[in-house]
Amino acid sequence: MPTDTRERLVDAGAELFRLQGFAGTGIKAILAEAHAQFSSLYHHFPGGKDELAEEVIRTTGAAYQELVKAVWDQADDVVLGVESVFEGAAAVLEATDYADACPIATVALEVASTNERLRVATADVFGDWVLGATLKFTEVGIGAGQARRLALSVIALLEGSFILARATKDTEPVRAAGQTAVDAVRLTLEALGRRSRPEPPSRPLHAG
Amino acid sequence: MPTDTRERLVDAGAELFRLQGFAGTGIKAILAEAHAQFSSLYHHFPGGKDELAEEVIRTTGAAYQELVKAVWDQADDVVLGVESVFEGAAAVLEATDYADACPIATVALEVASTNERLRVATADVFGDWVLGATLKFTEVGIGAGQARRLALSVIALLEGSFILARATKDTEPVRAAGQTAVDAVRLTLEALGRRSRPEPPSRPLHAG
DNA sequence: GTCTATAGAAGGATAGAC
DNA sequence: GTCTATCCTTCTATAGAC
């Protein structure tokens, strides 16, 4: 009733896949959550569970990128932007009892060696994220190679710390990873600044 | 080829869970892989699939820690040790067509919000890894807080880059994450060398 | 496009003979 | 401890009425 059936199916699938994974979520559970019928699912997604899952991966992947970008852009500079992303993620984890982290990570690991169609979908999403983060770093003058390495590392720190945080029900890994991400970006920027105008850092990088 | 039925069940479960996840692996598939019967599984593991999975998580978690420790210890110093771990992981990924990464990551995400018994098992394993890596860093004179933060970050970089690498079938994320991990450790050591005091005071980077 | 009903396979788990 | 046979549930997917 609130929205159209197709959208409800995607939303329900997104929530359950993120929480329980792909194999752990039955179609019937999705239908119940979406208040929809079998016929509706196979009408909107003739490819069945796989087609719905691909749609969920691509739409939630793009939505999450937008969310992160919004948080990032609200900060005054790149370093604070990265810091905000990790702080925001930690806050969401705590607020949702460590249920709500990356929308596609669980599915990505599940399908990596078992479902080529969905594997490619997750690869596309991660690829977009890497390109987006790389752009953030090149925009502040970091070279392409370094920017891409930083982007991959920041995303890896985020994803890896999500695993540790959800397993241990503790935000410490996210905060630790966030600090390392911040240090990596700051270090790269300072090395960049030393090339143009030599000025040593006024305080040590690692103080905590 | 283990002759013990119980061991064959654990090995088969380990391989299939790592590759397909927990929910995606049926008991019948494990029995077929292990050349065992239903009665054998429920004889050795009265708790059924959950009990087998917990055993798999704890044993493969400990085994992986030993493997990483062996690679790490073979290097001449901490920085080269960390570098070797990431290089070794990338080599294994390539050699196994991106199937063989972390033995428990997929299951950890699957069960984090759905199976408390298995969630605790994965948390225990990750906790042991963090303690082990922390010890490596304190052994070279890094303070407890910094060492733990580095340990959490290195493990997060490893786990996160595994997700990206398996999804994209490319080792680039692992090599990028490895470089960031190496830089973080090296930077901490250099900052340590610049200090006269053996233990720097713990203080957040961004006050307020 | 939505409803009910059901097929056909696979899921986890158990019983009883030996 | 191992074997065969089986129970009941859940799974994905389809059929056919409306």
Fold and architecture overview:
Two copies of one chain form a homodimer. With 208 residues, chain A is an all-alpha fold. In chain A, 75% of the residues lie in helices and 0% in strands. Chain A has nine helices and no strands. In chain A, helix 1 packs across helix 2 (27-34) and helix 7 crosses helix 8 (144-168). The model of chain A is unreliable at 197-201 (pLDDT under 50). The structure holds a DNA duplex (18 and 18 nucleotides).
List the helices and strands and how they pair.
Two copies of one chain form a homodimer.
Chain A: H1 5-20, H2 27-34, H3 38-44, H4 48-74, H5 78-95, H6 105-111, H7 116-138, H8 144-168, H9 172-196
Chain B binds a DNA duplex (18 and 18 nucleotides) through residues 5, 26-28, 36-44, 48-49.
List keywords for this structure.
homodimer, DNA-binding, mainly alpha
Please give the most extensive interface between any two protein chains, plus how many residues each contributes. A-B, 58 and 64 residues
Fraction of residues in helix of chain A: over 70%
What is the number of strand segments of chain A?
Answer: 0
Work out the oligomeric state of the chains in this entry.
Answer: homodimer
- Give the helix tally of chain A: 9
What is the 3D form of chain A? elongated
> How would you sum up the major sheet of chain A?
none
Low-pLDDT ranges of chain A: 197-201
Specify Rg of chain A, calculated over alpha carbons.
19 Å
Coarse structural class of chain A:
mainly alpha
CA-to-CA gap between the ends of chain A?
A: 52 Å
How large a portion of the residues of chain A is in β-strands, by DSSP E? Answer: under 5%
Q: Could you state the order of secondary-structure elements of chain A as H and E? A: HHHHHHHHH
| Average pLDDT taken over every residue of chain A | 93
